[in-house]
Each structure stands twice: as C-alpha cells, then as structure tokens.
Amino acid sequence: MHANLNVMKFFIDTANLAQIKEANDLGILDGVTTNPSLMAKEGIKGQDAILKHYVDICNIVDGDVSAEVISTDFEGMITEGEKLASLHENIVVKIPMIKDGIKAIKYLSSKGIRTNCTLVFSAGQAILAAKAGATYISPFIGRLDDISYDGIQLIAEISQIFAVQGYQTQILAASIRNPVHIIKSAQVGAHVITSPLSAILALLNHPLTDKGLAQFLEDHAKANG
Ligand code: G3P
User: Fold this and answer.
1) 136 in contact with ligand 1, CB cutoff 6 A
2) Distance 175 CA to ligand 1 centre (A)
3) DSSP string covering 39-59
4) Is 94 part of the annotated catalytic residue set?
5) Distance of CA 111 from the midpoint of ligand 1 (Å)
6) Is residue 33 lining ligand 1, measured as CB closer than 6 Å?
7) What is the DSSP string of 95-148?
8) Protein residue whose Cα sits closest to atom 8 of ligand 1
9) Does the beta carbon of 169 lie inside 6 Å of ligand 1?
C-alpha cells in the first residue's frame, strides 16, 4: 500500500522490530526510517546482520524503508546505495547532505533508485537535494529546536519553496520529539513525518476522552444492571 501523496504519511523512526510491529498493527504506518545510530542502539552490527535487519523490516511494513549509507565519498555511496536498493523494492537509500552526497543522489535517481537526503538543516540544502532528484529530504526538527532554531519554521519555509517551484521531492519531517511536532508538521505541509512510537501514541491521549469513556461505560453498567 502506498499512501495518497496529498495525505501526510506516518513513518516510524526506529530499527526496533517490536516497535515497528506495534505501529504497523495500528494500521496507520506507511514506512520506516533508520540511521546508523538507531541500528547500533538495537545491537545490529556487521554488514550481514545489518542487511538482514533491513530485509526483516521490509517484511513487516508494506512501505518505504530508509537504509543509510556509511560511506562519505561518491563511489562508496553509490556502491552501498546500489547494494541496499537491491535488497528489497521498498528500500530508499539514505544519503547525507554533503557535496558527494548530492552527486550520489543525482546518480542514483538517474538509475531509478529512490533516495532520502538526510541531515538537512536549511532551505538551501533542501533546494540542492531536490534539484539533484531526491525522493525525500529529511529536515531534523528536534535537533534544530535543541539549538534554539525553529524546526517547524524550516519545514514551513521548505514547503513554501517546493510548492512555488513545483519540486516533486517529499518533505520528510525528522528528528520528531513529541506529538506537537507531528501536528505542526501536518499544519505547515510536511508530506511525511518520521517519529518515535512514543510521539505517535501520544497523539491518542486526551483526559476528556478517558473521562467521557469512563462515564459512558458507568452509565451503561447502571442502566443494564
Ligand atoms: O533518523 C533521523 C532523525 O529522525 C534522528 O532523530 O532524535 O536522533 O534527532 P534524533
């Protein structure tokens, strides 16, 4: 299943299989993003184990799965990117926003391999990655907020530029820390959010929902003995 481009997609930002399954079971999951830190957090190490883990993720979720290269030179990135892309049709190759990364995005997209340009922190970087043909760009909202810049403002700025220019590149709001980041990303035009499970589940919560449901059940029990 691939979501309508006009409806903001939900990706989960983890390499934890149990959390990926839990989010997938909710029925609202459109994909997964990983990065080397998230893979290391799950104790996945060694090339064979890393590649197998990406396949395991692809076997859980019917949607795009971002797998990040480790190389920082053009040749290394395209060799890794082609290998990652050959693992499964849903793999999107995650490439860092550096000079050779832009060249690699251009090359891989010319070969029909989809890319996600990661570590985007400015509108200028977003424009370059879109021009190179990135499928997704990942601005890191939370890490900008951490240093007193407005991460959501960056999503809004990129959203406006992409709309004016007609870029097909999708804005994937990353480094999400809380449910308000998800709501605001939707408000300012992100095409996708990638979030920890905790922030997705936090969208469910409202005290008046809990109070109201308890009252409904209590009234039903009273009326029905
Ligand atoms: O996967 C990239 C991004 O979402 C990382 O988030 O929380 O490490 O800033 P964070």
Assistant:
1) no
2) 4
3) HHHTT--SHHHHHHHHHHHHH
4) yes
5) 28
6) yes
7) EESSHHHHHHHHHHHHTT--EEEEEE-SHHHHHHHHHHT-SEEEEBHHHHHHTT
8) 175
9) no
Could you tell me the pTM of the whole model? Answer: 0.95
| Active-site residue, selected from the candidate residues 21, 52, 94, 211 | 94
CA 205 to chain centre: 22
Q: Is 81 within 8 Å of 69 (Cβ atoms)?
A: yes
pLDDT per residue as tens, the chain (225 positions): 444 556 999 999 999 999 999 999 999 999 999 999 999 999 999 999 999 999 999 999 999 999 999 999 999 999 999 999 999 999 999 999 999 999 999 999 999 999 999 999 999 999 999 999 999 999 999 999 999 999 999 999 999 999 999 999 999 999 999 999 999 999 999 999 999 999 999 999 999 999 999 999 999 999 998
